[in-house]
Structure formats: C-alpha cells, structure tokens
Amino acid sequence: MKECVFLAQQYRMHKAGFVNIVGNPNVGKSTLMNQLVGERISIATFKAQTTRHRIMGIVNTDDMQIVFSDTPGVLKPNYKLQESMLAFSESALADADVLLYVTDVVENPEKNMDFLEKVQKMTIPVLLLINKIDQSDQKALGDLVEKWHSLLPKAEILPISALNKFGTDMLLKRIQELLPDSPPYFEKDQLTDKPARFFVSEIIREKILLYYDKEIPYSVEVTVESFKESDKRIDIRAVIYVERESQKGIIIGHQGYALKKVGTESRKALERFFGKPIFLETYVKVDKDWRSSQRELDAFGYNPE
Predict the structure, then answer these.
(1) How far apart are alpha carbons 176 and 172 in whole angstroms?
(2) Is the dihedral of CA 261, 267, 272, 277 positive or negative?
(3) Phi, then psi, of 279 in degrees rounded to 5
(4) pLDDT classification of 6: cutoffs 50, 70, 90
(5) Are strands 55-61 and 64-70 parallel, antiparallel or unpaired?
(6) C-alpha angle 237/195/58, rounded to 5°?
(7) Where are the alpha helices (DSSP H) in 152-195?
C-alpha cells in the first residue's frame, strides 16, 4: 500500500503527453519535429508529401515525457496511398493532448478547410505555428496572424522558423506548461516507436526523393528484406519497389550509375545514423500500381489502426 501511495505521489510530479504535429504538405512539419526532438527522426526534403507515415519522437527528462508525432501533409486523396496518409493525419486529432497546427507565410490559410474545421472543434490546446517567418516582413506577418486568429480563435499563435531554430525554445517551454500530469507512456530511454528497419527504408527513400525528378519518387516504396547486425557492422538488403518497368530503368540508370549513387549516399547516411559501418545491397522490383492496392499498402505498413 505504501508503495502505491509513493508511486501515485511520484507521478503527480511527472508530466507526459502526446503532442501531435499536423498541417498541409511542405510547411516544415518534419523539420520542426527534428528540432524539438533533438534527433533526426523524420526525413525532411524540399518536396511535398515526403512524410508518409505517422512517426513518433520521444523527449524525456526526469519529470517529463513528450511524445511528439509527425504526420503526413493534409491533402485531398487521389489514390489509396494518399487515403492512408490522410488517415494518419486525422488519427493525430483523436489522441493528442496538445496539437501543433503548422502553417507557413506563403500558403493560403483557407486551404483544406475540411480538415481545418475539425481542428476548430477541438477542445484540447491548439498551438498555431506560422513557420518560415524569415521569408516574410512584419506587416505581412501581422496580416497573417489576424487571418489565422479569425479561423482558429481559440488557438495560441506563435511565429517560428524551424530551420533557423527561431522560436522553438519558447514553443518547447509552452508545450511543457500544457502537458497533463501523467506517468510516462514509454520507457525513459526510448527515442521513437519505430524499429531500425523503418529508418533504413526512410533514409533510402529520402535519397530517391533528392536524386530523381517528377513522379518517380512518389511511385517508390522501400522495404528491408534483411537486417543483420554484428559488433563490427550491419549488413542490409533493401528492395526498391516501383510501379512500372520504365520506372525501374530510371531508378537503375545507365549501367547502374543512378542506383549506385543512391546506394552510396544511403550507406553514408545510415552509417551516421547507426554509428557503425554498413554493408548495403539494393535491388529494384516492379509492383504494379501498389499505391492503389489496399493489400499492398497493408503489406507496406500503411495502416493507421
């Protein structure tokens, strides 16, 4: 009985909660997530729809645990993959203790009003973050704040620049103030909810996003067939799936040059991520119209439930 009372008293002094990050594509959600967590959890590129999954990053102190959650950009779905991505974003509205709605200085505040109307109805604290303020001036920013205040009158509005770390310390302090009293949800040494294989796939997909143009990166999925770790190195075999034979040829490139470049850059990034030598093998396979197949999407882990 005394032990139970002690634990109850201990957790009354401990804060923990889910802080979910939502918003339209390409406004800087993943960059913000990485800054707040202090680790590179989410891949971040200049291309929209970079994030496809809901990814958690966990910040721990002795008396606090913040479970951040990065989500795909909100968009009107054109195929089943985008339906799954939207479901990840909408699920973040259901279990948040604090919601971070990220916008920037260039997007139309009334974009995707259907999703915004769901945010308007939320009763939890909502922090409206206007990102990339280094790309605006004081008057334009003031007009934008007024517009957002009319759309989300209950939200706290904070101008930030995630890339330049402006306003992120103040944001983190405000999040800490809003967290409910709670025991931790995860072990105190845990950084994320995703396994190592997930980050291998994401790092390879990031390089494909960076090195290929047009539709090719959006037709690609990466899976890890083998991940064998020893004291000295990690051996990885990964498969890059595309939807068309023509896309397979583009990914491989003339005499395999393009695939070799992706493999080399991915290996370097993986070695930085895992802190040990990596032996990486990559293969390319065709999985016709995988983005529109629910069976394939389930197999690739696009199930928000």
Answers:
(1) 6
(2) negative
(3) -110, 115
(4) very low
(5) antiparallel
(6) 145
(7) 168-178
**Residue 133 in tokens:** 């303020």
Cα Rg, the chain, nearest whole Å = 21
Nearest to 267 by CA among 243, 303, 237: 237
End-to-end CA distance of the chain: 37
Q: How far from the centroid of its chain's Cα atoms is residue 203's Cα?
A: 13
Please report, for residues 61, 131, 133, 242, the alpha-carbon distance to residue 161 in angstroms, rounded to integers and kept in the order given. 25, 5, 6, 35
| Three-class DSSP category at 244 | coil
Alpha carbon separation from 303 to 85, 283, 285, 287 (Å, rounded):
9, 25, 22, 19
| Global confidence as pTM | 0.84
Residue 164 DSSP one-character state: T
Give per-residue pLDDT as tens, 31-55.
999 999 988 887 666 666 677 788 8
Q: Which residues contact 143 (CB under 8 A, 6 or more apart)?
A: none
- Render pLDDT for 67-83 as a digit per residue (tens, 0 to 9): 999 888 877 777 788 88
Q: Is the dihedral angle over the CA atoms 51, 56, 57, 59 positive or is it negative?
A: positive
Q: Cα 11 vs. chain centroid, distance in angstroms?
A: 29
CB 204 within 8 A of CB 262: yes
> Who contacts 124 (Cβ-Cβ below 8 Å, separation ≥6)?
96, 97, 98, 99
DSSP letter string, 48-94: TT---S-EEEEEEETTEEEEEEE-PPP---SSHHHHHHHHHHHHHHH
**All residues at 6 or more sequence positions from 303 whose CB lies less than 8 Å from its CB, including other chains:** 84, 297
**Tokens 């995703």 map to which residue?**
194
Cα 271 from Cα 279, distance rounded (Å): 9
